[in-house]
Amino acid sequence: MRPLTEEETKTMFEKLSKYIGENIKLLVDRPDGTYCFRLHQDRVYYMRTQAFRTFTVFWKFVPDKWSIGTKCCFSMFGSGSRYADNLKPSCPQFKVWVKPGAEQTFLYGNHVLKSGLGRITENTNQYQGVVVYSMADVPLGFGVAAKSTQECRRVDPMSIVVFHQADVGEFIRNEDALT
């Protein structure tokens, strides 16, 4: 486990800025402590700095398949996977909420149709990165807006409004490949 290189940090922050904009600062300097990013086997972990220091003492005794804590794998280089739970405190600028019937479809890797769209942030532009939420405000994943907010109001129910990028179900679907 090591800190990200300057190039890796730049790549990760460029991709994240599509989804959360200037709020990237809130990921590192949070009111509940200082957090850091660490790379291990193409996975970027997001964790408290204190937890990282504690865990480094025990790292050599831990099997390779373990991770630090829960929900800490933030992204994976090379696969495009990102986990949205860590973004909730950083207030993404553009959000999409899907209806309960469309949640499972999105979590299986499909795009969001107009019929499954619950709400969308005002002034979302076409091809803007968005964070996809359930109607209960649970982050489900990431996408790219296929239509702007104004276009979403006029399209037919079977039109794609959000292109699927990554979701929290991706880890389970790819679990065999990771071990």
TrEMBL record:
Stored PANTHER family: CYCLIN-DEPENDENT KINASES REGULATORY SUBUNIT/60S RIBOSOME SUBUNIT BIOGENESIS PROTEIN NIP7
Keyword Transmembrane helix attributed: no
Compartment list: Nucleus, Nucleolus
Family, similarity comment: Belongs to the NIP7 family.
Name of the molecule in the record: 60S ribosome subunit biogenesis protein NIP7 homolog
Function: Required for proper 34S pre-rRNA processing and 60S ribosome subunit assembly.
Biological process terms in GO annotation: ribosome assembly
Domain PUA: 94-169
Organism: Fundulus heteroclitus
